[in-house]
Amino acid sequence: MILIALLAILIVGGLVAWVAERWHPLWPRFISLLALGCNFLVLLALWLWQPDPFMINGQGAWLITLDRPWIPHFGVRFHLALDGLSLLLALLTCFLGLMAVVASWTEIKYRIGFFHFNLLWVLAGVLGVFMALDLFLFFVFWEVMLVPMYFLIAIWGHEHRHPASFKFFIFTHSGGLLLLIAILELAWTHHQNTGELTFSYLDLLGASPDPETAFWIMLGFFIAFTIKLPAVPLHSWLPDAHTQAPTGGSVILAGVLLKTGAYGLLRFVVPLFPVAAAEFAPVAMLMGVMGILYGAVLAFAQQDVKRLIAYSSISHMGFVLLGVFAWNAVALQGAVIQMLAHGISAGALFMIAGALQERLHTRNMRRMGGLWAQAPRIAAISLFFAVAALGLPGLGNFMGEFLVLLGTYRASVPFAAAGALGLILAVVYALIIVQKTLHGEPEEQRHFTDFSTKDMVAMGTMILILFWLGLYPQPVFDMAHPALEGLQQLTME
Amino acid sequence: MSSLDFTALLPLILITLASLTLTLIVAGYRQHRLTMVATLIALVLCLAVIPLAAAVSPQHVPPLFIIDRYALFYMGLIFTAALAITLLAYGYMKGLVDQPEEFYVLLLLASLGAAILAASNHFASLFLGLEILSVSLFALLAYPRRFQLSLEAGVKYLILSSASSALLLFGMALIYAETGALGFGQLSTLLSTGALSSEIFFLAGLALIMTGLGFKLSWVPFHLWAADVYQGAPAPVTAFLATVSKGAVFALLLRLFVQVDGPQHHTLIVLLSFIAVATILAGNLLALLQNNIKRILAYSSIAHLGYLLVALLASGNLGVEAVTFYWVAYFIMNLGAFGVVTVLSSPTQEKENLEDYRGLFWHRPGLAGIFTFMLLSLAGIPLTVGFIGKFYIFAAGVEATLWLLLFTFVMGSILGLFYYLRIIIALYQTPTIEKEALASPSSLPLMGSLTLALLTLLLIWWGVYPDPLMRIIQAVAMALI
Description:
- The complex is a heterodimer.
- In chain A, helix 4 (112-131) runs antiparallel to helix 6, helix 7 (161-194) crosses helix 10 (237-244) and helix 14 (329-360) packs across helix 20.
- Chain A is globular.
- Chain A is mostly helical.
- Chain A is built from 20 helices and 2 strands.
- Chain A is 75% helix and 3% strand.
- The longest helix of chain A has 34 residues, at 161-194.
- By secondary structure, chain B is an all-alpha fold.
- Chain B has a domain at 261-480.
- Helices cover 79% and strands 1% of the residues of chain B.
- Chain B has helices at residues 3-28, 32-56, 69-94, 102-119, 123-141, 148-179, 184-193, 200-217, 226-232, 235-259, 266-288, 293-314, 316-344, 360-363, 365-379, 385-399, 403-428, 433-438, 446-464, 467-480, and strands at residues 59-61, 65-67.
- Chain B has a two-stranded antiparallel ribbon with strand order 1-2.
- In chain B, helix 15 runs antiparallel to helix 17 and helix 16 (385-399) packs across helix 19 (446-464).
- Chain B is globular.
- Chain A binds chain B through residues 70-74, 136, 139-140, 143-144, 146-147, 150-151, 154-155, 162, 165-166, 169-170, 173-174, 177-178, 180-181, 184-185, 188, and chain B through 376, 381-383, 387, 391, 394-395, 398-399, 406, 410, 413-414, 417-418, 421, 425, 428, 465-467, 470-471, 474.
- Chain A: GO terms for molecular function: NADH dehydrogenase (ubiquinone) activity; NADH dehydrogenase activity; ubiquinone binding.
- Chain A: Belongs to the complex I subunit 4 family.
- Chain A: One of its GO terms (biological process) is electron transport coupled proton transport.
- Chain A: Pfam families: Proton_antipo_M.
- Chain A: Residues 132-418 form the NADH:quinone oxidoreductase/Mrp antiporter transmembrane domain.
């Protein structure tokens, strides 16, 4: 029931927030904070109440499951479950949700209730994606979260919001349709082999279609997830969507939505089609490396801060793709840490970019300059997250990238070497942000408020998390370990 | 005819009597509200006797009709749709200066034609049903007779209908020449015993019949009339045309297809596959170019007929279920979408340009929300009945391994998303101040709004929990095969 409650809190919270706008514009914001905070605490409690919270183990590593029939005619079940991996991502989702509400506190000025409704529903969809163990249910959550995200960009976005929201929806929906056909073909192959029609992840793990079919189905899954990730030839929706989305939307997009693609690769593509995925791994890893380098090079060329962060996200998610397809214990742990650390650091960077845009009414870095003098708090925090993004040892991003490269090195030396180049390019673009925005002479004498206490609390928490991930990531390893090991075992057989 | 036959035919008999009675009422006493209420009562009565007829089904009424679960299901769908259109049209027809009463008589007659199609098991009843439906539709289309566009739509439909009737008759003649049979059942036995000497005439006849029906269903390349007629027709009639008339013809087509064992005729399958691909692509591509909501919805409905053809070609149990489920979804979505247009329009001022809908969310959030749901459902986004319908067709297609058609379907859905999103975005754009002033907060017709709310509820209910509907449809599909 806890799993249903997690979804219900967000869904009902969204509706209440929408209605509550009538009374006072602050109501929706508080309701969202309450709903997300409540979810966050429930998840945290769920984790800490395990017999041995830092070493989750047991059969299949499922902490909690819920399984009910839904559409018996097609063998579809309402099957949700959490293991260490899902729990980590669910925690990230709720945490960044809180951050997104804080980031939109002053930015969103009209239709506040509807904004928070959409925000909470996106997060409900994402939570569902992380928890669904029935492929049909997974697909439903996968598609449902697009609609509120689309509204977030299309209604509250910046100047070119309409084309950007179109692109976002069309790209991800196209991937979704491929995914749907792939899921159906998988289920039907299973049906032909066993006579049982089911969409259950656990049943389909043993579906074993013939190699050629498996390859095509795998490709359908892979394309859908790499569009969302995004991997390089399929990435072109991302810079526009990120740039045009309101700050809260960008935080959710970069921090959480991209992770659903990575999660799909990790949870579905490799375990469901171990052989096909192993054959395909070189191509996938090549795409990962291309993403790392391409994203970093293009980030370097941007003038718009949000675009820069968006391209850097492509680069960072390339590491995740690389790690997933290297498919050994080290690389997988690295991919998970990278997902969490990138969620936090990109979220924070977008919040800073949003704060700057709100104050300066521009995202052009050429016109920023000299923030150190005018807003020391914003400047110091920007510096921190910029160096976090470039992979400074001791911070979470470094830990993720390092482990991914270490694991990749075992799988393929050339890919590891090429991926490592990305670390150098990251330094270039991160230092460019610092140089252009923080240093130098201000273009004009501006007066604007620095970060408030509320912002500082949010930022401070994120800084602490990055330190934690960088200095003492063991609890996270322990938490993800059984799930990752379980996934790996599936591919051994 | 035995009493069982009468029981089985009750829905048809009742609706015939109802249209006659209504004519007499209108002749004696003209009163808009009274006529409308009488229509509602008639339709509810027709719906109420369907369970009675179902109790004796399947019942052959030789030689013309077969009353089985399949026929009764579609009749239920047709009468419910007519009911919804009556409720939606009431507010709209009030705006008509002269004599709105006959509209309801024609609506009942058209429903009678559609119901006959759903139950017909013989070429003669097919033709009769189709003509009753079409002739009432000419009049309905041109009902606001002072408006040029409506008249034009009526005339266009008249010419198209005569052409398609001619083709249909010629096709029937060819089949009769070859087999000597006009009943679907006879045809099916002749075909299964292999009594046919040469298939040429039979196939040519079948192709001509498909063409004739294809005009009514607006398959590409027989679609050219659709957008003009949809645009010109009064909004509630457009809703009727898009749903009831097409649904009934498709129901008949499916029955014919199953009876003559369509999948066995390779040429026919190839032909229909081409038509499906062309219909999906052309419908969606042409919709992209429109700025008129009615035209966009017209082309989108062409595309949806293409999707339905994919399910028809998949055939088998799952194919028939998919077709039937998709029709339910299609009825809800299109009644809803055209319903929104209807409640905002009046005969003198049809709200059909995309411009008219810009910023609707800001002054009519409820209506914009309903429209958004309808459009998302048309686009096949989950938690709407449209998604389950699409899923059904995908499932049938995957089972029958129709990869080419499925990929066309995917392409079509992606293209479709462009124009559905275009409308949605227009709904949520912030209106300019002058626009705000123009959008006078005139009250919406109550009954129309309630109907729309109910449709939205069904759309979500069956989108989230489709199991009860699926069970019914399984039984329906079983009856046909």
